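User: Sequence for RNA-binding S4 domain-containing protein below. C-alpha coordinates please.
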Amino acid sequence: MAGERHRLDVWLWHARCVRTRSAAAELVRAGHVRLNGTRVGAPAQAVRLGDVLTVALAGRVRLLKVIGFSERRGDAQAARATYLDISTPSQAGDDAERSAG
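Assistant: C-alpha coordinates for RNA-binding S4 domain-containing protein:
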Protein backbone atom coordinates (compact mmCIF):
# COMPACT_ATOMS: atom_id res chain seq x y z
CA MET A 1 0.00 0.00 0.00
CA ALA A 2 2.92 2.38 0.69
CA GLY A 3 3.96 2.29 -2.98
CA GLU A 4 0.45 2.92 -4.30
CA ARG A 5 0.15 5.82 -6.70
CA HIS A 6 -2.41 7.37 -9.02
CA ARG A 7 -2.37 9.85 -11.87
CA LEU A 8 -2.64 13.45 -10.70
CA ASP A 9 -5.54 14.33 -13.03
CA VAL A 10 -7.51 11.26 -11.96
CA TRP A 11 -6.92 11.99 -8.28
CA LEU A 12 -8.08 15.62 -8.68
CA TRP A 13 -11.23 14.39 -10.44
CA HIS A 14 -11.94 11.69 -7.83
CA ALA A 15 -11.39 14.25 -5.03
CA ARG A 16 -14.00 16.47 -6.75
CA CYS A 17 -11.66 19.43 -7.16
CA VAL A 18 -13.00 19.72 -10.72
CA ARG A 19 -16.07 18.40 -12.57
CA THR A 20 -14.33 16.45 -15.33
CA ARG A 21 -11.08 14.59 -15.82
CA SER A 22 -10.27 16.73 -18.85
CA ALA A 23 -10.73 19.85 -16.69
CA ALA A 24 -8.29 18.34 -14.18
CA ALA A 25 -5.76 17.69 -16.95
CA GLU A 26 -6.13 21.27 -18.23
CA LEU A 27 -5.71 22.66 -14.70
CA VAL A 28 -2.41 20.78 -14.39
CA ARG A 29 -1.20 21.74 -17.89
CA ALA A 30 -1.98 25.41 -17.15
CA GLY A 31 0.43 25.30 -14.19
CA HIS A 32 -2.19 25.72 -11.45
CA VAL A 33 -1.09 22.65 -9.48
CA ARG A 34 2.03 22.09 -7.39
CA LEU A 35 3.10 18.74 -6.01
CA ASN A 36 5.13 19.04 -2.80
CA GLY A 37 5.96 22.65 -3.72
CA THR A 38 7.04 21.95 -7.30
CA ARG A 39 4.92 23.08 -10.24
CA VAL A 40 3.63 20.14 -12.27
CA GLY A 41 2.89 20.27 -15.99
CA ALA A 42 2.06 16.64 -16.72
CA PRO A 43 -1.44 15.35 -15.86
CA ALA A 44 0.00 11.81 -15.67
CA GLN A 45 2.35 12.76 -12.80
CA ALA A 46 2.17 10.13 -10.05
CA VAL A 47 0.59 11.10 -6.72
CA ARG A 48 1.40 9.09 -3.60
CA LEU A 49 0.00 8.97 -0.08
CA GLY A 50 1.36 11.84 1.99
CA ASP A 51 1.96 14.15 -0.99
CA VAL A 52 0.81 17.76 -0.59
CA LEU A 53 -0.94 19.42 -3.52
CA THR A 54 -1.33 23.16 -3.91
CA VAL A 55 -4.28 23.81 -6.21
CA ALA A 56 -5.19 27.28 -7.51
CA LEU A 57 -8.79 27.18 -8.67
CA ALA A 58 -11.61 29.73 -8.92
CA GLY A 59 -9.70 32.47 -7.10
CA ARG A 60 -8.76 30.19 -4.21
CA VAL A 61 -5.60 28.37 -3.27
CA ARG A 62 -6.11 25.07 -1.48
CA LEU A 63 -3.48 22.90 0.18
CA LEU A 64 -4.55 19.26 0.10
CA LYS A 65 -2.68 16.37 1.68
CA VAL A 66 -3.32 13.05 -0.08
CA ILE A 67 -4.55 10.54 2.51
CA GLY A 68 -6.30 8.04 0.25
CA PHE A 69 -7.31 6.90 -3.19
CA SER A 70 -10.56 5.71 -4.70
CA GLU A 71 -11.16 3.36 -7.57
CA ARG A 72 -13.97 5.50 -8.97
CA ARG A 73 -15.45 8.95 -8.54
CA GLY A 74 -17.94 8.81 -5.70
CA ASP A 75 -20.06 11.28 -3.80
CA ALA A 76 -18.70 14.29 -1.90
CA GLN A 77 -18.32 12.32 1.33
CA ALA A 78 -16.19 9.68 -0.39
CA ALA A 79 -14.13 12.42 -2.04
CA ARG A 80 -13.39 14.08 1.32
CA ALA A 81 -11.96 10.77 2.54
CA THR A 82 -9.13 11.05 -0.02
CA TYR A 83 -7.61 14.30 1.28
CA LEU A 84 -6.99 16.48 4.29
CA ASP A 85 -7.45 20.20 3.62
CA ILE A 86 -4.45 21.86 5.30
CA SER A 87 -5.11 25.36 3.95
CA THR A 88 -4.57 28.05 6.54
CA PRO A 89 -7.69 29.48 8.20
CA SER A 90 -6.70 32.98 7.04
CA GLN A 91 -7.05 31.86 3.41
CA ALA A 92 -10.61 30.70 4.10
CA GLY A 93 -11.37 33.98 5.90
CA ASP A 94 -10.06 36.04 2.99
CA ASP A 95 -12.33 34.10 0.63
CA ALA A 96 -15.36 34.72 2.86
CA GLU A 97 -14.62 38.46 3.02
CA ARG A 98 -14.33 38.70 -0.77
CA SER A 99 -17.63 36.90 -1.36
CA ALA A 100 -19.45 39.01 1.26
CA GLY A 101 -18.23 42.35 -0.05
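The radius of gyration is 13 Å.
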